[in-house]
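Quick one before lunch.
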Amino acid sequence: MWLLLVLLQAAVLPARPCEAPGEAPAVRVLSARLLGLATDPARDPDPSVYLALRLAGDHDLRAEERYLARLQDTFQHRYGRSLQAAGQPHAAPHGHPQRDAVAAEHNANAEAEWPETGRLALYLLGLRATCPPPEPSPQRSLVTWLKYYLEEDWAGSRRHGHPLTSYYQYSLGVLALCVHHKRVREEVIRRLLVAQHHGTMGHAGGSAVDTEAVAALAFACLERERLVGAGLAEELRAATRGARRRMAEVQGEDGFIGNVYSTPWALQVFIATNTCRTQPAYGRAMAALLEHLDAFTTAATMAQALPALHGRSYLDIASMRCQEELDTLTPMSPEPLPEVPGNVTVQLVVECPEPRCPQRRLYNQPVPAPAGASLLDVLRAAAAQGPHNFTFDTQETPQGPFLLRVLGLEARQRDRTYWQLLTAPNTSLDMGVADYRPRDGETIILRLSEW
Ligand code: B12
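Model of the cobalamin complex:
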């Protein structure tokens, strides 16, 4: 019934030049599913989800208002006070909700003062996307905090060769300030240009497409909003062109640019630079995405895919028009996973390279689990089975549970280490522990890696 309603409503949707061709119904179903997840009060509000709802073709305006109120509750409380009143430079706002929970649990609060460039940038982008726009005054302190974080990241990049957070978050920071029409220091922008030029945006074990795309969106915005001088504008134009060219070059036979999850970001670059009709890579990537919409099962991945599927980019936030928004979207519940009968056995291997671990391979055991179990279920089964003492901890993030500690060894932001998930012999998984479902006989490697 819901599906029928959603499909019927699709017929009255206005087309956008870069919108998924003739596939609006499937995209609307995905929007309706995201709305369903957003209306669940048990989930922490996430600015990316709000952005995806706002950039969609039609809306549930009341639900969006409620979601915004929840976001404001979380963020305004944290960043409402001025930076001076907070006694900067050493008193960044304490109390990251997720990190706090982890800190309380593990008594490890060392990273509480880490810049939150990306989160705050996404929230500010979200605020700019509201209709009608909110009062500017409460946003001032948020913008000041974001500038402060970006400066911290910039200083970190000079000291360590990379931002304290990541180039992805750094790019989001520049993009959000630009969308708010705030100038960014030329040196801060140049850092991003240099990283893009030297190809240092990616990290070991991951592709650079998502990050390069967000950086290209920031470049396109700075140029379009005329926030830089003529010389730098020309450099930014060239960098955006270069990013587009590389995206077309790395497109696989399957149509994806990077993987299925980075492809929507690459599409946003073509959309933002009005090249969706002229670049053959765009049509092929969009077709590939539409064939794999079932890969987007979590709120975070749906939220990142939907703007491009609706033919929009984060740059459109700078020129949101508040009239004539269709208020016809209705939430859909997530599809329950099909029951799979039987059992699987997964070989679980834990590796930690020297010098941290002289013995390198710390664990190598078969783990029986029900068929269809997620990797997280397999890890739980391993922890429950004796006598090999497997232990692990996860940390909640907007992307889902992040594997933080294995056999007592913690991955640390400060050392840029993480527990990488691989399938043997050496393929990095493109899903997290909660979403990946290992096959019978598969060997899964948890490897403490640097990024
Ligand atoms: C930077 C980054 C990382 C860094 C994060 C470190 C850091 N301090 O910045 C590192 C290298 C550690 C990392 C690891 C992984 N990542 Co990653 N990562 C990203 C990237 C490029 C940016 C994330 C970000 O900063 N977002 C902005 C901030 C504001 O949002 P946030 O939600 O608060 O971000 C935090 C969490 O997302 C967390 N995180 C990062 N990646 C992942 C992945 C998963 C599954 C989870 C639960 C959490 C998580 O770290 C972020 C920074 O604190 C995204 C790209 C994208 N399109 O989102 C991929 C991305 C999120 N990662 C992805 C993947 C697959 C992974 C790994 C599973 C890879 C692997 N095989 O090991 C691991 C996680 C394993 C684990 N231990 O649980 C996928 C997730 C796809 C999906 N199906 O959900 C993405 C979308 C990349 C892609 N195109 O495939 N990642």
